[in-house]
Amino acid sequence: MSAPVFTNDTVVFGLLMLSLGFVFYTESLKGGFWEKFYKFIPGLFMAYMIPALLTTLGLIAPEWDTTEIKNGAEVLVHHKTSLYYVSSRYLLPAALVLMTLSIDLKAVFNLGPKALIMFFTGTVGIILGGPVAVYLISLVSPETVGGAGPDAVWRGLSTLAGSWIGGGANQTAMLEIYGYNQKLYGGMVFVDIVVANLWMAVLLFGIGRSKKIDNWLNSDLSAIEALKKKVTTFSKKVERNPSLTDLIILATIAFSTVGFAHFAGGYLSEVFKSFVKGIDSETTRNMFTFLQSEFFWMISISTIIAITLSFTPARNYEGAGASKFGSVFIYILVVTIGMKMDLTLIFANKGLIVIGLVWMSVHALLLIIVAKLIKAPYFFLAVGSQANVGGAASAPIVAAAFHPSLATVGVILAVLGYAVGTLGAIITTLLMQMVST
């Protein structure tokens, strides 16, 4: 990707916040064009898509290459914005802490088994979607799913399976297990970004129509509404005009937790790297790759600390606006994720993109069928899907869009995705190998 118009992260962040402010301001207007507009297009979807349009127009970019002169010779230098990294590593765990302070853990468990059913349905959808997509595309374009040795497409698609059931750690594990040509690996990462982000856009769009979708699914919303009502009642009970001391303590709770989570996460990831290396069986070793991920431990530790604090007087800081500040951080993460999406890339590698779209369609169709059968709310469908495809970085975004109190559900399911990711991806890859040969 060539250099965008704006390369300074401070300037880019200003543009992202400007787009976010535009969405919230226009969404607050009553009467006229904007009220009608947001009846059809959810504000969260717009917060995601405006940065994507800025990237598509070449104004900003998540990464780019420039040619520079070093020691009298031209060299290609790769640049990458740090905005997404800061948002996902600092603001996301802080948001999870602030949104979880007032959680009622018993009420979360009372949501019942449908959340787990929809999560595992999403996992099965990814496992079956891969081989179905490879088989269907092979009927019309066998060269698209061909290749031999390290260049075999099914090997590359294994990394997509890892990413879509567990995230980056499992994606890397699949790259190592099946030895895909790393010179071609960038093409698979590209498909991952395009298809996963398009699917997230669809889920966000659906949130604005969740009532109609739930009516069609005949959803039983009683447990979710009970949880939301319980949290809302508690929030009103402890609500107060926050003082400067309240705000400082909220920041202290959030970011001291994030600091400890990074410290402990870095330590634990190193400990488990040694542990995993000591496992004799390569298959077993790769199944536990996610334990080496600092991000996994950072999210898990932040969530555990926040849940623990919810049993202490710290939960009363919900009255000072804890979940509102958490929501601000979540929306900043949304715009940084949105800027990773260049809409023109959809047409850059049509064959692989079609495989990815067919794959995701199978995943979506299975989720819809099961949701209809068990009368699961759209919330469980969306979060169960995103906990697989997006992982801990985006599942809380989708969950919190329904209500801040539900963000923890997204985290819990995403962590489960880490645990089953490598095994699920291996099964998917074996099936794709069978249908492509």
Structural class assignment: mainly alpha
Give the low-pLDDT segments: none
> What is the helix tally?
19
As a percent range, the share of strand residues is under 5%
The H-and-E topology, N to C, reads as: HHHEEHHHHHHHHHHHHHHHH
Q: Fraction of residues in helices?
A: over 70%
Mean pLDDT: 84
Number of discrete domains: 2
Could you describe the 3D structure shown?
By secondary structure, this protein is mainly alpha-helical. It has two domains: 73 residues, no CATH class; 348 residues, no CATH class. 71% of the residues lie in helices and 4% in strands. It has 19 helices and two strands. It has a two-stranded antiparallel sheet. A hairpin with a 2-residue loop joins strand 1 and strand 2. The mean pLDDT is 84.
